[in-house]
């Protein structure tokens, strides 16, 4: 007997428990469907480029993670050595560490990064001035501006400036690259005596000798919708660019800010 005729044919009372069990099984079936995770929740699992740095919202790996798992402007790529790479003004910066808890990251120009093992003979390739995409990344507190001078004749440099040579120029290996803080007293002397390009960069303050500081890089802070409320309720953060809004992907469905409790 099918359930419809069961409902519409008058029956003695003892048939009614059967109706209840139909309703019960239908309920079980329906809740099972809604328990299978939302596809975006599964898609937006954290990943790595090969080293131990976790890549998750607001960052996403271009071509390997969906843009909706990250925030606009936070696409990164992976270097063959397993380090994540951030493009700033068309220059590769190696991401040495991401501090998700305080929205900051340490990066270093790939050309002289401590994390770049392929920098041959300590020679420094040409590079570009650091410029930040204003709305996304900003310089963290306690960073110092630095200028790199290419094409310096190391023999004509006084002893106190020999300490500031960070390597030979990759373009002309007989010449040197000198790194000076913007406020250093000898900037004008170096500027006059170095014939190559002049590049603005940053280092973290108080790291030690300038050679080491340049290789270690500097700290940036970022601005993106906060993920903590969503992740604390078991969700995965993301961004829907069609409506230009933060999204919280939960096991049941997509939410605006956080997963509903229970
Ligand atoms: C990654 O982390 C594991 C465990 O914490 C550690 O044993 C390993 O050496 C790390 N690898 C790298 C490349 O840092
Ligand atoms: C980063 O910049 C380089 C050099 O301009 C470019 O070839 C590369 O496609 C860029 N990568 C990304 C992820 O934007
Ligand atoms: C974020 O935390 C890390 C680790 O505690 C720290 O080294 C870094 O300076 C902090 N970033 C900022 C912008 O304060
Ligand atoms: C390391 O430095 C070399 C030479 O400056 C550069 O060509 C290469 O792209 C850098 N490696 C990475 C992983 O960016
Ligand atoms: C970097 O910017 C300075 C001005 O601040 C400019 O003189 C210099 O040519 C720029 N360097 C490069 C490599 O574009
Ligand atoms: C560099 O600066 C120091 C301190 O002001 C000064 O004594 C020295 O003469 C300068 N050297 C050159 C080559 O300008």
UniProtKB/TrEMBL annotation:
<feature type="domain" description="Wall-associated receptor kinase galacturonan-binding">
    <location>
        <begin position="44"/>
        <end position="108"/>
    </location>
</feature>
<dbReference type="InterPro" id="IPR032872">
    <property type="entry name" value="WAK_assoc_C"/>
</dbReference>
<keyword id="KW-1133">Transmembrane helix</keyword>
<protein>
    <recommendedName>
        <fullName>non-specific serine/threonine protein kinase</fullName>
        <ecNumber>2.7.11.1</ecNumber>
    </recommendedName>
</protein>
<dbReference type="GO" id="GO:0016020">
    <property type="term" value="C:membrane"/>
</dbReference>
<dbReference type="GO" id="GO:0030247">
    <property type="term" value="F:polysaccharide binding"/>
</dbReference>
<keyword id="KW-0472">Membrane</keyword>
<dbReference type="GO" id="GO:0004674">
    <property type="term" value="F:protein serine/threonine kinase activity"/>
</dbReference>
<feature type="domain" description="Wall-associated receptor kinase C-terminal">
    <location>
        <begin position="189"/>
        <end position="253"/>
    </location>
</feature>
<keyword id="KW-0325">Glycoprotein</keyword>
<keyword id="KW-0812">Transmembrane</keyword>
<keyword id="KW-0732">Signal</keyword>
<dbReference type="InterPro" id="IPR025287">
    <property type="entry name" value="WAK_GUB"/>
</dbReference>
<feature type="transmembrane region" description="Helical">
    <location>
        <begin position="12"/>
        <end position="30"/>
    </location>
</feature>
<dbReference type="Pfam" id="PF13947">
    <property type="entry name" value="GUB_WAK_bind"/>
</dbReference>
<dbReference type="Pfam" id="PF14380">
    <property type="entry name" value="WAK_assoc"/>
</dbReference>
